[in-house]
Amino acid sequence: MRQARPVYAADPARSRGRRLAEPPAPTRSDFQRDRDRIIHSTAFRRLVYKTQVFLNHEGDLFRTRLTHSLEVAQLGRSIARSLGLDEDLVEAVALAHDLGHTPFGHAGQDVLDECMAGHGGFEHNLQSLRVVDHLEQRYPLFDGLNLCFETREGILKHCSRRNAELIEQAEPGGIAARFLRGGQPSLEAQLCNLADEVAYNAHDVDDGVRSGLIELEQLLDVELVREHWQASLDAHPALTGKRLLFETIRRMLSAQVYDIIDASSQAIAEAAPATADDVRCCERPLMRFSVDMRTKSTALKRFLFANLYRHSQVQATRARAEEVLRDLFAIYATDPAQLPTDFRQRPDRERACADYIAGMTDRFAIREHQRLTGKLLF
């Protein structure tokens, strides 16, 4: 028997609704409908060819933005089910959270932010919201996907005060209000933030070792890895190689999931929110790690930053990626005839250039750069 929905969980029957009202779907909740719209979007399909850490052509088994988003959704749904949260909302937010990511990962975001310095800047999280609010063109009556407030709230994970003020002007009391007045998003959105962190820490360990850029022995300096590596060997003394790595990562994931469930359950019980909106009034997120697990997770992130993301081979690839995107932006900004017609006709030329480039896959950006410059950097 399905458990009763906790009073603090998001309820699609009590959603704050869509920006443009629509009649309900006959067989799906509003959050299920959001999830389905996201999966069928063009931006979602592009994620399969967008970089996580390694470029798409560097190996068939490395994570992409698509596989990362699926892993976040899986972890999120597992935790949501244990806590009685709305799994469909968690899945929708998880699948949409990286829709605005540029080609070449964070290198692309940094370049576009630099290119857009005099035109409002660029931030991939805000771009994800632009995708679902404006850039998708699938429906006859509106731009974007016309998602529910709760899904859009979860997608907007970060927001500068300047951008929050702009969103608030257009949508008073809406999804950006918490960045101006304090407060939190729904528990489902908070959960996606944690699931995102758990997923990328784990799969970057896997991809880093698979690539040869980091050794498992190096990772044993990190407590979270070391304790689960040792537990794996204690349970299976003959385990070696990939099986040992996979068992270590599996145990790491499980430990973090159970920690989130326990720590969050305690925090929710102490705060005792009587409604989903009570959650939004809390000063701190109620979905959280324990203090001990937060310390261990942060140490792993620092290790990956120093030894994988800043590895000389990754940095060399990043430099070429930055050159590709700088060149593309400069060409489109000075010669808009090179843009597709719908982008060329927009009055905000620089933002049109950023939107077009941000929507590219890694391989399309490389091909387009070669076509326009004659240079082959990859």
TrEMBL record:
SUPFAM superfamilies: HD-domain/PDEase-like. PROSITE patterns: HD. Residues 1-30 are annotated as: Disordered. Residues 65-201 form the HD domain. Keywords: Hydrolase. The keyword Transit peptide does not apply. It holds the Pfam family HD_assoc. The keyword Hydrolase applies. Gene3D superfamilies: Hypothetical protein af1432 (1.10.3210.10). InterPro entries: dGTPase (IPR006261), dGTPase-like (IPR050135), dNTPase_2 (IPR023023), HD/PDEase_dom (IPR003607), HD_domain (IPR006674), PHydrolase_assoc_dom (IPR026875). HAMAP family: dGTPase_type2. PANTHER family: DEOXYGUANOSINETRIPHOSPHATE TRIPHOSPHOHYDROLASE-LIKE PROTEIN (PTHR11373:SF43), DEOXYNUCLEOSIDE TRIPHOSPHATE TRIPHOSPHOHYDROLASE (PTHR11373). NCBIfam families: dGTP_triPase, PRK01286.1-1. Belongs to the dGTPase family. Type 2 subfamily. This is Deoxyguanosinetriphosphate triphosphohydrolase-like protein.
